[in-house]
Amino acid sequence: MNECTHIGLDVHKDTIAVAVLRPGTTEIDERVVPNTSEAIRRLLVKTDRIDARNLARLHCAGELTAVRVPGASEEAVRDLIRVREEVKCDRRIARQR
């Protein structure tokens, strides 16, 4: 799945026409901003209004999945598994050497 946000900029002396295609959507968000560094900075920082609209659209389409933070014991097991995999890889490399 492509998780990139594609941004097109048509730059003029006083304004910049911006088209944004966010992941998981087919609608292009178009707007015109002043040609200043502050306007561009604000454009690139996420806006709550746009995010809320996209989340509502994705939820309605059933494309959101539930996420939860693992507890301390679950995270400890995950760390142990990661370390075990690293040791197995190191062992294999040492054997092949």
Structure write-up:
Strands 1-2-3 form a 3-stranded antiparallel β-sheet, covered by helices on one side. Strand 1 (6-11) and strand 2 form a beta hairpin. The chain has 3 helices and 3 strands. It is of the alpha+beta class. The protein is elongated, with a radius of gyration of 22 Å. The chain has helices spanning 37-44, 48-60, 72-96, and strands spanning 6-11, 15-21, 28-34. The chain is 47% helix and 21% strand. The mean pLDDT is 86.
Q: Figure out the total of helices.
A: 3
CA gyration radius, whole angstroms: 22 Å
Number of strands: 3
Mean pLDDT, rounded to whole units?
Answer: 86
In percent, how helical is the residue content?
A: 40-55%
> What is the straight-line distance between the termini?
37 Å
Major sheet description:
3 strands, antiparallel
Content of β-strand: 15-25%
* Net shape: elongated
The low-confidence runs, each spanning 5 or more residues with pLDDT under 50, are none
Secondary-structure element series: EEEHHH
What is the strand arrangement across the widest sheet?
Answer: 1-2-3
Helix- and strand-based class? Answer: alpha+beta
